[in-house]
Each structure stands twice: as C-alpha cells, then as structure tokens.
Design goal:
Blueprint: H1 2-19, H2 24-36, H3 45-54, H4 59-75, H5 77-88, H6 98-111, H7 125-136, H8 144-161, H9 167-180, H10 189-204, H11 208-215, H12 220-232, H13 234-239, H14 244-260, H15 268-287, H16 292-314, H17 322-330, H18 332-390, H19 392-411, H20 413-443
Helix pairs in contact: 1-4, 2-4, 3-4, 3-5, 4-5, 4-6, 5-6, 6-8, 7-8, 9-10, 9-11, 11-14, 12-15, 14-15
C-alpha cells in the first residue's frame, strides 16, 4: 500500500512540476515517509528508472525525482546504492544530470563510510561496467572534474561489485573483461585496470580458465595482452593464489589452437609470441623452488646420512662403528655428553619449578574463576526453573491428554483390522512352513 502511495506521490510531483505548481509539500511528505521506510525507494527501481529516462530532457523534474528516491539512502546505505545504481547511474552521461548523480554518490559514501563493508551485492556487472566506462573511458560523455571524483569512488564501487561476486558471476563477467582489452601495448589507466580485474577474476575463480579456453578464438589478440600481463606480474599473481597448473594448461590449449589457425588469423603472431615468452620466462621460475646452493647442501647431507647408516649397519651397531670412533677422536662425543647432561639438569630444574608452582597457579585460577562459574550456574538453574514454570501448563495438558490419545489409538478399529489380516496371512503360510520344517529335519 505504501509503495503505491510513493509511486503516486512521485507521479503527482512530475505532473505538478509540468504545470508549474509548487511541490515542496509532496517533497516533505516523501522525506518523512522514506525516513522511516527507506526500503520503499528501492522496490520499483525499474519503473523509476524508466520515468527518469523519459524525462531526461527536463532536468528539474529528473533531479526532483532522484532527490525524492535518494532520501531512502540517507538512512540506509543498501537502499541508497540500489537507487543510485539503478536510477541515477543510467543517466550519468546526461550533462545536466551527471553532477547531481556524482554528488549524491559522494554524500552517500561519506555518510555511511563505516558501513560499506557490511553492504551486500547491490551493483551488478552491467552497472559495474557502466561505472568503469564513466571512470576511465575517454569517449564517455562525463566532465573531467566529475570523472576525477568518480575515480576516487571507483575502488569502493569495485569492492562492492567484484569483491562480492560469486563463482558464476566471475565466469560470466570474464569474457566482458577480455572484450574491452585493447591490442595496443600502451599501459593506459583503463588498460591497467582491465588487466588487473581480469587477473583478479582468474585468481578468484579457477573455472574462468576453462571459460577463457572456450572464448579464445574470439579474443586471440586480447588473450595475448592478458598473457603478457600475467607474465610481467607473475610473482605478484602467484602470491595472490594464481594456479600455475591451470595457467600451463591454458597456454598449452592456446598453442594447440594456434597450430590449427591460418597465418592470416588476426593476432596469431602476438598470441604465439606471448605463449613462448610465458614458457621461457615463467616455467623455470615456477619450477625452481630451491636454489642451487640449497640443492648442493641437501645432496651433501643425504650422502653423509647414507654413509653413517651404512657404517652402523656394517659394524652391528653404533658403539663399534667408525662414526663413533671419529666422534670420540674429534671430541664431539664429549661435547654431546656434556650437552645431554646440561639438558637433563635443565629439565630437572623445570620439572621442580612446575611441581612447586602449578598447584599455586591452579589454586589462584580457582579463586578467580569459581565465582564466575557459580554465577553462570545460578543463572543456568534460574533459567531452567523459569522454563519449567513457563512450560507447566503445556506439560499438565500433555499429562492429561496423552493417556486418552494412547487409549484411543489402541482402541481404534484399525488395529483389529490389522490383526485380522495378520491372522489370515499366518493361516496361509503355516502349511508351507510346516512342510519346509519337515524337509529340513529329513535332511539332517
């Protein structure tokens, strides 16, 4: 009912403004209503979006409609972002409406700065790409000063979109990131951001690698750009959780497809070069988890360990082995014995200390913890007594009525019918059981 009232109120504001009438009274009513029921602003955003777009040539009307709907966001960030992304963002390219849309977003994020992390997924990928274009695309009709403001808000909006996406959303959006990449090697702001988003998508959802392999024939040039980006920032991407095996599998898939393409395929040379570069630069780096010096030390350690084990085995034990003699001659045997003696004495001191102090610690803990446990116990007992008192009428009713129900269940005709059926079944199978019993006795 209230939603219909809000729609009618906005419609009457639009009509009154067309006639030149004052709409301050309607605005005050809407402001009061949406203060207590902010969610009403976000229930019919599609309808309000169409209304704003239909009146985009009348800036005063549009700004008034956006102001009314924006009142819900004053007290609720979720509602404010839904209204902004669904109603204001689609007209951000309109010169007369863009300043209000950007200003509203600025005030909204400033007012609710502490609640951004608690907001759900309120901006979908289509709206995110519109934000992306408004922030970075040179051909987007937005004033430079407003674009600068949008760049300041972009990390927050990206966090609310990409940061809240699930696996399916990542898979659906990945081709859109690829499609927007340019073949140029120039690292413009938009190119850097797209590459960063595409890499983040691959890190967040491994299934995107399979999507990439499927759409590769459509985006050969763009794939080479993304591969080069992954190669240039390999260590950073690996630290974020990029799966090397999936990258290798994807590169191998691209190589296989490149062999089947003709030399005239657009971007084939760049893609082949990116795959080869990736092989040369990244595979050794990924495999060389141990340095040369570490490998040499490991080989020496294993060799010494093997010789000692063989010596002990040949001499029937450690006492008669050459290793024991070497340790004794070098004085290491005495050092080890002294070390063991010191460790034993230290352990004895620690043991005495614990025997002396642990009872004191336990006693101190009991002194401080016991009152809290008593407090909790008393409240638990009080809670059980309260539940018993509250449930007493129900328990009395059950005690009174359950016996009657059991008697009714026992006396119900269904049991007599069931008994008769069982008797009939038994009378049918009894002769066969007797015959079977006789045959079994004859066998034994």
């Amino acid at each position: 009912m209230l939603q219909v009232f809000v729609e009618q109120l906005i419609q009457s504001i639009t009509t009154d403004m067309s006639k030149g009438f004052s709409v301050y009274g309607s605005q005050i009513v809407a402001q009061i209503l949406l203060k207590y029921k902010p969610q009403l602003s976000a229930l019919q955003t599609k309808k309000f979006q169409e209304l704003v777009i239909a009146n985009k040539n009348f800036p005063a009307k549009c700004q008034t409609i956006m102001w009314v709907l924006g009142q819900g966001g004053v007290h609720n960030l979720d509602v404010g972002l839904k209204v902004w992304s669904a109603v204001m963002l689609p007209v951000i390219e309109v010169k007369a409406l863009a300043p209000y849309a950007v200003e509203y977003l600025t005030k909204l994020l400033k007012k609710h700065a502490d609640g951004v992390d608690k907001v759900g997924s309120v901006i979908d990928m289509q709206q995110y790409f519109l934000v992306f274009d408004a922030t970075f695309a040179d051909n987007f009709s937005l004033h430079a000063s407003l674009r600068k403001v949008m760049r300041g808000h972009y990390p927050t909006l990206k966090k609310l979109t990409v940061g809240k996406m699930s696996g399916n959303a990542f898979q659906k959006s990945f081709p859109s990131f690829l499609a927007r990449l340019k073949s140029t090697s120039a690292q413009t702001d938009i190119q850097k951001e797209l590459l960063e988003d595409a890499a983040l998508t691959l890190v967040s959802e491994p299934q995107c690698f399979h999507v990439w392999q499927k759409v590769y024939p459509e985006y050969v040039v763009q794939s080479s750009v993304l591969l080069n980006h992954l190669a240039d920032n390999w260590q950073e991407n690996c630290s974020r959780g990029l799966d090397y095996k999936l990258v290798k599998e994807t590169v191998d898939s691209f190589k296989e497809k490149n062999r089947s393409y003709s030399n005239k395929t657009v971007g084939l040379e760049a893609s082949t070069s990116a795959c080869l570069r990736f092989d040369e630069v990244q595979i050794p780096a990924a495999r060389s988890s141990m340095s040369l010096s570490q490998s040499i030390l490991m080989v020496i350690f294993l060799a010494v360990l093997s010789l000692v084990a063989f010596d002990i085995h040949q001499n029937g034990g450690f006492k008669g082995s050459t290793s024991r003699k070497l340790l004794k001659d070098s004085g290491i045997d005495v050092i080890v014995a002294n070390l063991f003696s010191h460790l034993s004495s230290t352990f004895t001191i620690i043991k005495k200390f614990l025997i002396k102090n642990v009872p004191i610690w336990i006693e101190t803990t009991v002194v401080y913890v016991e009152p809290a446990l008593d407090f909790i116990w008393n409240y638990a007992v009080a809670g059980v007594k309260y539940l018993l008192a509250v449930s007493k009428p129900l328990r009395m009713w059950l005690a009174e009525n359950v016996p009657y129900f059991i008697d009714w269940l026992i006396m119900h005709p269904v049991w007599t019918i069931l008994y008769n059926y069982l008797v009939d079944i038994w009378s049918l199978i009894e002769p066969y059981l007797q015959t079977a019993q006789e045959k079994v006795q004859q066998m034994f």
